[in-house]
Amino acid sequence: MNSIDLSLKSIITFIYFLGIVSLSVVFFSCSKFPLNMPDATENQMLKEEVSIGVVVAMTGRHAEAYGFAMQRGFELAREEINSRGEVKIKFITVDDQSTPEGARAAVQYLVDQEVSAIVGLAISTHLKAVAPIAQEHGVIAFSSVSSAAGLSGIGDFIFRTSLATNISIPSGLMVTQKRLGYRRVATIYDEIDVYARNSNEVLRQALETNGVEVLTMETFQTGDIDFSQQLTNIIALRPDALFISALSQEIAQIIKQTSVIGVPESIRIIAPDLTMNEVQKAGDAAEGVIGFIGWSNLSDAPGNRSFVRNYRTKYGIQPEPWAAQSYATLYVLTNAIKIAQSPDATLIRNALAETTDYPTILGMLGKFSFNPDGDALYDQIIMIVKDGKLQPFE
What we know:
With 394 residues, this protein is α/β, with parallel strands linked by helices. The chain has 12 helices and 15 strands.
């Protein structure tokens, strides 16, 4: 793609293939998934309608940042898939009300409805709460957004589309540290949220492995709105970079307050889960902030341009990363259903486990695989805010 620097693409491609090669030996020698699957051809049709549960936040604090976008991505994918006639997908959608309790109730309801799989489950805290329920009943739980390391390892029916923190953060650090040269950093994270705690811990380990000194790890709690004391403490230590591990609302507020508090431009701000939603809310303060991203509208991955065009046509807005990841999730799941030629959850699970280099709209290359734990593997995109937009980090 003309707008992407060739050296960046080389780095991304190297990271991707290095990860695939290093993991492939483990996959074939100690994969936890059974490898027996029925034979299937691409043009076979599954006549039986497959019921899929969708758990997203339609009310509460996560609805606007995650739930609505996810629902749009799922629905667009379902319409496209059903129009092709090979598989017919029926959704049973339940609001998790942005709480772990709501997520547990939603998953239990869908298990009682005897769905083959449940998609959605955005928040790592929620997935951690519900994964044992799905695993116990042999129902696939396929999260399109959560990324705290280790959650897919809860059981062999648990899969994820987001790059787990132990995959995304080390590769993101490799690129950004080489370019920016930071040696002394600070972190700030939500000590309540599962993703934020895990992200910060992975960051700490990866930074120390790379010889980067972590000066301080400031904390806050979900729902906090004032971060002035933490930012003041960070400024006093004069780090080269500040890493933010949080959910959408707090990411936007922290970035916005860096400008108010007067964080100097010499301190580079990196928020691994940064999207345009946070950029827009943070305003001018977001300029120069860096994110590690699984999807971009600038990518030439297979079908991405069509996805962006169709999404804008249907909804009248630009697609969000969580919509894109949910869209890709349903396509990956449907491919497994086609291979299984059955709505049986175990057969679909087996087919999902075999997913290798499946073409999606994710990353720059679009090649999607699962590691032995059910976590996604594909090339990551590093982006930076320039002129109020997320653009390739060069």
